[in-house]
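Field guide to reading this record: the first block holds the primary sequence, the second block holds the structure written as discrete tokens, and the final block holds curator observations. Each block starts with its own label. This record concerns Alpha/beta fold hydrolase, catalogued under organism Aminipila luticellarii.

BLOCK 1 — SEQUENCE
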Amino acid sequence: MNKRKIAVIGMFIAVIVFAVIADVSHSKREALKVTTINVQVENIPVIETYIDDGKQKPMIIVQHGFKNRKESTIGLADKLAEKGFFVVSPDAYAHGDRTEAPLSLTEIIVHTSEEYDGLIDAYKKDDRVNIHKLGIAGFSMGGCITFHYAIYGKHHPEAIAPTISTPYFEQLIGSRLSRSIYSSREGLSVAQDAAAIQYIDQYILSHSPYKDYKNLKDVAVLMQNGELDRYVNSDGVHKLNTALTPINPRVRLVMIAGTKHQVTPEMTDRIVTFMCQNLK
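BLOCK 2 — STRUCTURE
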């Protein structure tokens, strides 16, 4: 066999090998695409976000804010899924695709938190999910839900990232926000009569999780708030940071300069890094 034939055969083999490698690489890329599925879990509308690679993953719940819906959390959910987490984004009580009657802000927080036990239990036998490696992140009202469940829920999270939020619900008393009554079906109203306002204020006092903050002593906590936030000011997170730090070295409060009541890319990136450090 002359040298030319050998060279041609060699080139042919190289082309085949390259094609096979390229096809394998393409298949791997396809397999690593983030999957997003809308499902009902325990009658709760949920978006599941994950990479379908057959591996069991830590579970992270990402909770939206007041008057918002689960779809608003997709940006963070995608970033977390790319890092190997199984992300569950539920509609809060009376929000999104749900049809419950209107409730006040704090009632919605508590009702949603109380649903988390059943939501998490529903994944107990799901091979995709390790519910014992649990994280929770939430924005604004979703952060309040995060605090409430981390302190009172059956499933103890290893890491939480409440953002532009507060564990000290008492700070909301007297505000228009605390008196807001909402459902996705009927929209927003604000309590006006004295009896309704008194009921709401008492409900806040009874259900604020701050008084039991010591239940967070074994939880990694990342709190992020805007320095210019007047909607949910930082009094509560500073209060918790001061009280919890002596008994929990894994507490971190980050105040974002020049930022109001908003979630920035810097905040979501920090949540992703935090979860990778504490749930992997």
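BLOCK 3 — OBSERVATIONS
The radius of gyration is 23 Å.
The CA atoms of residues 7 and 13 lie 10 Å apart.
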